[in-house]
Specification:
The complex is a heterodimer of chains A (300) and B (311).
Chain A: E1 3-6, H1 12-25, E2 29-32, H2 38-47, H3 54-66, E3 72-74, E4 77-80, H4 89-101, E5 106-107, E6 110-112, H5 119-129, H6 134-163, E7 169-173, H7 176-179, H8 186-194, E8 198-201, H9 207-213, H10 224-236, E9 242-248, H11 252-264, E10 269-274, H12 281-294
Helix pairs in contact in A: 1-6, 2-3, 5-6, 9-10, 10-11
Chain B: E1 2-10, E2 14-20, E3 26-33, H1 38-52, E4 57-65, H2 69-76, E5 80-81, H3 84-95, E6 101-105, E7 110-116, E8 119-125, H4 134-144, H5 151-157, H6 169-182, H7 186-204, E9 215-218, H8 225-235, E10 239-240, H9 248-259, E11 275-281, E12 290-296, E13 299-304
Parallel strand pairs in B: 1-4, 4-5, 6-9, 9-10
Antiparallel strand pairs in B: 1-2, 2-3, 6-7, 7-8, 11-12, 12-13
Helix pairs in contact in B: 3-9, 5-7, 5-8, 6-7, 7-8
The chains are: A alpha/beta (300), B alpha/beta (311).
């Protein structure tokens, strides 16, 4: 029986539910690497090169953890979503980097809508490699997509409800693989929740809506995920108290997106760049004072 | 007996303490170097303060701020522990209610606070990179063999400040070494350094912010006349530097302590206090948290750094 390994980083945070629904429907067993811990991060740091961003280093750590625990590791290459919707180069290169660094079987598909390589074709290809019949694959794909669309709708609704909350509201902007990673953004989320902040997440909006809205900040944006992030800011800037932008060092798309957000925003804005510094003290100072300002505690 | 309140601001480079009375007048103050040992620095600080405090005062509140605020807050059993941005803003607004912009450059942090009608509207702080802050200036002073306190006077002597890369202090440092070896006079290099601190600040912290007067400049670096001069020159605005500009954080936190008094009376006597910290790494899970245990008179009072909450 084949087991597919899914690294809990990068792509995982975009496709985790879709993949799991797809594999479960096909009765393919899969294993997901554990929540990032220091050991996994250290493994990644050890084998990566200094130019890589923290998130990619982390990804390699997860792959390293999985390498002898499964038959295949699932690594897509996501190149673009048509026209001007490019993804970050890490999403193109992860497959090649892993192939060069590790001696493992990789389960691989491309998403390149300019070349008509769709998610559907990708998942069909994977089903075939894992010896499933076309009829089964079709059914599983359909099921996974329906579930996924439901989830997007639901998450969007949750965000909309949160925007009506009476608590202090902060929009957390960032790539989901940074926001929700235990060693990258989780401490910040925990701190904010502990302080009774209503958190709205930039990745939980419907990208079809946010992508379009980003044109209000700039029409020349290149990266899809930057568009989604900035679009989320445009979407809710009149209903929130502040924006916190979390990015990992040295993320190239974010360096532009952060700067744009800072210049165009009229509400309080905090930019946090995470590298593998282990101390929370500096972060705490920034978060605490940011909350003080939002809550008006400075002025009492 | 009259009431008074102690504010302690423990920064990375210097430790500041003030004692104020009910009308926010400073009764006594002290400013010493932290030298990488905040607990020792605070013990010395309290000694100095105690000697200068008249006998008819009793301390009714203690507040701590600065990067070691939590540790010292535990040590002094402080009633208020707050970040330095809040403390600075409160201190400044008490004395200058009309201020619109606060520039602050400390030992490792630099920040800008924008205020409108006495309400903070926005602020920015350097990211975790400490480029262009006080610690950079003091290490360069050491390299050039002069006391950092004389830095400003040297800078004012210069007519032609040399150009020094302003983006990153690592680059700035190599630029500085080259300029010195080529033979530029010391004062021109120092003036160039001061100018690069200003440019660095405006590029990194002040970028995209509208800086309007009245502007107040504080933090340790505000005592450097060279930096003040170039702020004036580049912003084309008057820059106010209060005579207590280096103490503003401590004053702010003392004012906060006054607001949050508990009715308890505190002592400044620390001679018999044994305050220790022990660091160790927990290996119960792959996270290998770095833990810090804090002992007060050999009793464990707190431990920090655990992700799971086991300690």
């Amino acid at each position: 029986m084949n087991t597919v390994g899914i690294p809990r980083s990068l792509f995982y945070y975009y496709y985790k539910d879709l993949w799991q629904d797809f594999f479960s429907a096909l009765k393919i067993s899969y294993i997901i690497s554990p929540i990032t811990n220091k050991e996994i991060m250290d493994r990644g740091l050890k084998m990566s090169n200094s130019e890589m961003c923290l998130s990619l280093k982390n990804y390699l750590g997860h792959v390293d953890y999985l390498k002898d625990k499964c038959n295949y590791i699932l690594i897509p290459r996501i190149s673009n979503f048509k026209n001007d919707n490019q993804t970050c180069t890490n999403f193109w290169a992860a497959y090649d980097i892993v192939k060069n660094l590790f001696d493992i079987n990789i389960l691989h598909y491309n998403i390149d809508l300019n070349q008509k390589q769709t998610l559907k074709k990708g998942l069909y290809k994977i089903g075939k490699i894992l010896n499933k019949k076309p009829r089964q694959i079709k059914k599983a794909y359909k099921y996974a997509i329906i579930q996924n669309n439901k989830r997007i709708k639901k998450n969007h609704q949750i965000n909309l409800n949160k925007l009506k909350s009476k608590k202090t509201k902060i929009l957390l902007v960032g790539h989901p693989y940074n926001l929700y990673d235990e060693l990258i953004g989780k401490d910040i989320i925990k701190y904010l929740i502990k302080n009774d902040i209503e958190l709205i997440y930039s990745d939980k909006f419907n990208p079809k809506i946010t992508n379009h809205l980003s044109k209000k900040i700039s029409k020349d944006l290149y990266f899809k995920y930057s568009k989604d992030n900035l679009g989320a800011i445009v979407y809710c800037q009149n209903q929130i108290n502040g924006v916190i932008f979390i990015s990992s060092f040295p993320c190239a798309p974010d360096s532009l997106a952060c700067e744009l957000a800072m210049r165009k925003l009229t509400i309080p804005y905090l930019n946090i760049v995470i590298d593998d510094n282990s101390s929370f003290t500096g972060l705490e100072t920034r978060l605490e004072s940011f909350l003080d300002m939002l809550g008006g505690k400075l002025n009492d | 007996m009259k009431d008074c309140y102690l504010g302690v601001d423990i920064g990375s480079i210097s430790t500041k303490g003030v004692i104020i009375d009910d009308n926010n007048n400073i009764i006594t103050q002290a400013y010493i170097w932290t030298e990488g040992n905040p607990t020792k620095a605070v013990k010395n600080l309290l000694n100095i303060l105690k000697q200068n405090l008249p006998d008819n005062y009793q301390i009714k509140g203690i507040g701590t701020t600065g990067s070691a605020r939590k540790l010292i807050g535990l040590m002094l059993k402080a009633s208020v522990v707050k970040n330095e941005i809040t403390a600075h803003a409160i201190g400044t607004l008490t004395f200058y209610p009309n201020v619109r912009t606060i520039l602050e450059i400390g030992g490792q942090d630099s920040k800008i606070i924008l205020i409108k009608n006495g309400i903070i509207t926005n602020y920015a702080m350097n990211t975790l990179c400490a480029a262009g802050t006080g610690s950079f200036l003091s290490s360069q002073a050491k390299r050039l063999g002069i006391d950092v306190k004389e830095f400003g006077d040297y800078a004012l002597k210069s007519q032609n400040p040399v150009k020094i890369a302003a983006r990153c202090t690592v680059f700035a440092e190599s630029d500085l070494v080259h300029k010195a070896q080529v033979g530029y006079p010391k004062e021109d290099i120092i003036a160039g350094l001061c100018k690069s601190v200003v440019l660095n600040y405006l590029n990194n912290v002040g970028k995209g912010k509208k800086i309007v007067g009245p502007i107040i400049f504080q933090g340790g670096v505000s005592k450097n006349k060279g930096v003040v001069k170039y702020f004036k020159e580049i912003l084309k605005e008057d820059i106010i530097v209060d005579k207590n500009s280096h103490l503003m954080g401590a004053i702010g936190i003392a004012i906060l302590a006054k607001k949050h008094k508990t009715g308890k009376t505190y002592s400044l006597e620390m001679k018999n206090l044994k305050f220790q910290t022990k660091a160790f790494e927990c290996h119960h899970c792959p996270n290998s948290c770095e833990l810090l245990k804090i002992y007060r008179n050999n009793v464990l009072v707190d431990s920090w750094g655990s992700k799971c909450g086991k300690y």
